[in-house]
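Deliverable D5.2: sample structural annotation.
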Amino acid sequence: MLDPIYITISWILLRWHQLWDAIGVPEGVVLGTNWSWILAIIFLVVTVRVILFPVFVKQIKSQRAMQALQPQVKALQEKHKGDRETLQKEMMELYRKEKANPLMGCLPMFLQIPVFLGLFHVLRRLNPDKPLDKKTLYGWTVDQFDSASVAKLFTAPIAGKFGSSPEELAALGADGTTVKIMAGILVLVMMGTTYLTSRQMILKTGWAEDPQQRMIQRLMLYGIPASLLISGAIFPIGVIIYWVTNNMFTLAQQQWVLRKFPPPPSAKSSTAGKTVQPAKSGGLFGRGKSAPSAATQPAATKVAAPKPGAKPTSQKKGQPANQKGQAAGQKKGAPANQKGQPANQKGQAASQKGQAASQKKGQPANQKDRPAKRQG
């Protein structure tokens, strides 16, 4: 069922080997390495990545779309807090409406899995003791099969692996210690570059607000590199070369894309921008205190604002005038009112008919006022 994948991978690998051999790359061992086969594996990666470049562009666009939806996702999380089932339905509806696919970020990796498995199967078969009919499977010739079976990277055969049995190592004519050292170093490099590719993207785009997306990010950042420590023991050295080369290609490609098309502000940065806004008005007041806005000022403060041309109520000269109007309800104003009473009574007396009648009636009132004047 997987024969078409094996045939395709073998065809690409053999074409690159023939090209480097025709160019003049030494077929024999130089520095303990058969460079024509190593370069064939490296350029197998280049071929696959060029084919998958449109998918990589879609991955970046999907990540941008997911970032743009982070505020809405956060709002849904607040709205349906505690109701996980409803939250998942609402988010799936949001993704469908906005044509965003949370799984698009992992699509390039998923598409490379068949290539990885195909190369793993092809390199695992490399054994000079294989029958002739097995050597010619997937478009190989006997000479190509025998040449690849003894191909080495710094004296370690590319078909060998960290967990190779003594019988397998004897068939490949390899030293077990050399194979384990080279395979162990490559596994560590494979783990490190796998971690760096995920970390590079997360540092540029930030952690997702969506729990599913965050879980995928954590899986890619920590889970996959950790799993390689165990699974790397069964990978042939040629497969590890493919994986490391693929990671290096990914690091360079992501760096170029993220520099040329920087990600938009994420939900996290937009939230941080809201908290920074009050600091703009409070910068003049020092120590993070913001200036009071018109909406937060007391109503009395607004009423007491002086009008153009009006005398300030806070001046000392204006206080007596205000006190005269308020003296009826204050004890301190009583003497001022009592002083004003005789003048008012004199004015009333002048308007009355007949001086005699006014004098008789005014004498008791004046006598009553005299104690008040003395008291004042």
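Annotation notes: The radius of gyration is 45 Å. Residues 3-64+102-266 form one domain.
The annotation will be released with the project's public dataset once the embargo ends.
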